[in-house]
Design brief:
Helices cover 38% and strands 26% of the residues. By secondary structure, it is of the alpha/beta class.
Amino acid sequence: MKSILEINDLSVSYNKNNLALNHVSLSVSQGSILVIVGESGSGKSTLIRSVIRILPPGGKINSGKINFQNDDLIGLKPEQMRRLRGSQIALIFQNARACLNPKRKIGFQFIESLRSHSSLSAKEARRIALAALSDANLPNPERVMDAYAFELSAGMCQRIVFAMAISEYAQPLLLLADEPTSSLDATIQAQVIRQMLDYRERFGTSIIMVTHNFGVAAYMADTIAVMRDGCLVEWGERDDIILHPQCEYTKELLDAVPKLEVR
């Protein structure tokens, strides 16, 4: 299957003596879901932030290549990357509320986001936004559009950001999701995961999802990458990783998954 993203020998640091990513190489097939697992500080979030070129202050790509649709993302100018973000590559952050402007209503932000990448009229952008919020299982989309982020729950904010990323108009080729279900209760987690799977089926979008939850990885991944201390310690097909792990660290993560004993 054709690769949509190829990462080759990528190293990233936050200071001269500390590699957050240490010569990482992997690829993502078109229309597939890669789930990256590992403990906190393993480099998972740094990896997907490197892809979309929004590393935190002090972050620097030291070496390697990131090829997306045969374009070297590291070599693109800021304006070229800006055009890719949102239209071809979208990112859902872990803390969705922090990504929303507390001084602007949700409707204003959603419409502005859609129009910044298109020639849509405000009326058409509003129609698309309302439909996307409805698809994200948010009750009363009109009320949500008229609300501020601080008036909504963390789960609602997460679904709003998700709706912005995958609206009818946006349809990115690659969706990056950084712990998108960590702030949600179990019922809403399941809804968001099913929505991501449905979106992949409808539009053939490739997804890279970061999580510490091996159960989520087992449910939705085509391939799984296991990271530790900035290194990729294991990577392969889901069933191979879960049923026949080769790395001791992967075995430890799998052993830590809670199991229900029935007597």
